[in-house]
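ARCHIVE CARD
Drawer: 12
Card no.: 0347
Subject: one protein chain, sequence and derived structure
Cross-reference: see card 0346
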Amino acid sequence: MTLKTLDDRRQALENEFFSRKNREALDEMRAQNAAKTRRASLVEASHISDEDVIAALDEAGISPETLTAVSVIPLVVVAWADGSIKPAERAAIQKAAAEAGLTVPGSDLLEGWLAERPSTALLDTWKAYVHGLHSNLSGEAYTALRDQVLGSARAVAAAAGGFLGLGAISAAETNILDALHQAFVDG
């Protein structure tokens, strides 16, 4: 093999290496730009400027289109408190979602949460969302939001009933309701 042939092969290997590295860097840059765009849209839609909250929403797959679905997370979590969702709870959640104006793809997200119990990370994401809202809403608006969310969550908890109205809200549901209330207090 001649020196020229070895030099040509070395050059070809270097070109391939740097070409691959450039493609990887370009892909990474595109992914970062896409994340920035998604997060900027979330800031605009949610009126939350806290980067950690926005990052948590983005990482949880929440988009501006599915942001309304975030409002029903407390209802879903309460419904799953006993380990399953009863038909009356499902109906109460779907009614609340429709009243909130939830449309596709948010309704698809909700149906997934109703079909399969979401991880505890979903509630953690919602708590971060509430925390972000606290600094972006007036005291009056924050209180109104708290009352609306807790009222809807309590209605879902009570939807499954009980015997003659006794025990309509289980201990597990009460614990979740307390956690939801605490999220607003800590917000």
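Annotation on reverse: The longest helix spans residues 3-46. The mean pLDDT is 83.
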